[in-house]
Amino acid sequence: MINLDISKTPTITPILRQRRADQTAYTADVSITRNGAVFDLTGFAISFEGITNKGAKIIDDSGIVVNDAVNGRFTYSMPAEALNDVGDFKSAYFSLTKGSERETTNNFGVFVLASADLTEDESKNYLSEYEKMLEKLRELYESMNIDEIKKDIDELKGEMNETKEDINKQLEDTKTEIQAMIDEVTKTIANKDIAVRGEDNHFTANMIVDKPIDGSLKTRVTTVTDFADIAKAITTYPGQWANNGKNIANAPFASGNYT
C-alpha cells in the first residue's frame, strides 16, 4: 500500500519498483489522505504525472481504478510506455481534479529496473488518450490567430450595424408612404361624409346629376283638378308639382307646373 498525503506532510517516501518495458506492470494499492485523515475521492479525476530518468514526461489516467472513493483508495498500473528509461523518476505523484479544484499528492519514488534481453529504446513522452486530446486542444488554441479572429468579428459587427441602419431607413420610408396614403383616404372619407351629413358643399364647377333627385327638389306629378289641393299639399311636400298639362281650377297662371 502506497500512502500519500495531499497536504505534503513529510513522511517516509514510498518507492515503486518496475521492470523496464514490462507488458504487465505491477499494480499498486494507493491510499490518499489530507493531514493524515481520509480524503474522499468522489467526483475527482485522478492522473499519474511523472518525469522519467531521461526527462520524458508521463501523464496517465488509463491505469487508475477507483475501488473505494469515500475512503480515498484506488489501484494504479503503470503503462509499459512509461518504463523505457532505466533509473529513478525525477518526479512522480498523483493529481486530483474536480472542476476548477486541483490537488496533488506528495512525491513518491519510481525506480525502473534494467532488462537484460532488450535493447534500450529512445525515451519519449507518454500521454494517455485523455491527455492527448487536451494536448491537441492546447495546440489548436495556440495555433489560432486571436487578433485575426477579433478583426473578423469586428468587421462582422460593423456590417450588421450597417444592415440594421438600412433596414431602419427602409421602414421609416415605408411608414411615411403609408401615412400619406392614410391621410389621403381620410380626406376622401371626410369629403364624402359631408355630403352624407347634409352639410353645405361648395362647387367650383358645374354639378352634373346622373340620377333623379329625391328630396325638396323632387317633381311630383298630381291628378288633382283644383289648385287649392296643390297649395295644401305643398306645405307638407315642398318642391315642384306637375299636372301633365291638365287645366287646374283656381290656378293663378296657366302653366301646368307649380312650386
Automatic annotation (TrEMBL):
Coiled coil: 120-188
Zinc-finger found in the keyword field: no
A Pfam family: BppU_N
BppU N-terminal domain: residues covered: 2-137
Key words of the record: Coiled coil
Matches recorded under SUPFAM superfamilies: Bacterial hemolysins
InterPro entries (alphabetical): BppU_N (IPR018913)
Keyword Transferase: no
Protein name (database record): BppU N-terminal domain-containing protein
